[in-house]
Amino acid sequence: MNAVSASTTPDPEGPSTDVPTSPVRWARYVAMGDSFTEGLWDPYPDAPDVQRGWADNLAALLSARRIAAGEAPLEYANLAIRGRKLRPIVAEQLDITVDARPDLVSLVGGGNDILRPAADVDAISAALEDAVVALRATGADVLMGTGFKAGGSLSWTNGRVGVFNANVWSIARRHGAHVLDLWGMRALGDLRLWSADRIHLTPEGHQRVANAALVALGLEPEDAAYDTPLDAAPPVAFRDSARANAAWMREHVGPWVKRRLTGTSSGDGRSAKWPTPQSWPRA
User: Fold this and answer.
1) Do the Cβ atoms of 259 and 265 come closer than 8 Å?
2) Strands, DSSP E only, in the chain?
3) How many other C-beta atoms can be found within 10 angstroms of the C-beta atom of residue 18?
């Protein structure tokens, strides 16, 4: 079991073509999850309506290393759908994942649950553990993720996230899973690595997480500086900060609250972007 460590300044255009020599034993990878694993907001340059994200980047990095070692490309599927809570992720995606017979699965979720006022963190964690047990019974390696350490207006979630993270580490220890330590990534404390909605990463943020995932799996990162914090930002005038906060409330918090009140989700009517394993990267 390996935790995420240190950082990088990845190329925002995509994974590096300089492939380290770390061996990759996995041949088929399935990613389960919510918007974080779907890849919001990291659009493909040639298909801006399709999100890329850390899991697609991780699959590309693993595949490149397999090809460099003379192996067949990695096969990859991404079942993640934005807005999903942990138990719906398991209910909708677990059987499909098991049927695909992967040897590597990432299962990262729980953030949408934790944002709800009545969240039961231990119940969420129990559902996660049941899924990990089922996946490990197939022989697949499992990569889980901790929650992020939030700042500013979302810092109220940190107590819940801390309990959830402790449970994630305990589940990993009990069942021999890997942990992507998002809480411990220093670079992610910088708002410049977050999109305008402040709860999803920028393309550079997703690449940094892909490097962290390599480390969590016991492999060398593409860039040893993947968790190096950005240079200090210039000070922002109070007036500009207030305007930015007001715009965030109007454009992102308001619609989120409306969806909660109306019982709708940003993922309603959506399906997985890569529902079946395919040779990666796509032709």
Assistant:
1) yes
2) 28-33, 43-44, 47-51, 75-78, 104-108, 141-145, 178-180, 274-279
3) 9
**Residue-level pLDDT, tens digit, the chain, 283 residues:** 344 333 333 344 444 445 455 579 999 999 999 999 999 999 999 999 999 999 999 999 999 999 999 999 999 999 999 999 999 999 999 999 999 999 999 999 999 999 998 999 999 999 999 999 999 999 999 999 999 999 887 899 999 999 999 999 999 999 999 999 999 999 999 999 999 998 999 999 999 999 999 999 999 999 999 999 999 988 888 887 888 878 767 887 777 677 777 888 888 989 999 999 999 998 7
Other CB atoms within a 10 A radius of the CB of residue 43 amount to 15
DSSP-assigned states of every residue in 163-190: HHHHHHHHHHHHHT-EEE-STT-GGGGS
Strands (E), 3-65: 28-33, 43-44, 47-51
Closest by CA to 9, choosing from 162, 166, 192, 205, is: 205
Name all domains of the chain by residue range, CATH numbers in brackets: 28-233 (3.40.50.1110), 236-269 (no CATH)
Residue in the structure block whose two tokens are 């009517």 = 269
- CA Rg value for the chain: 18
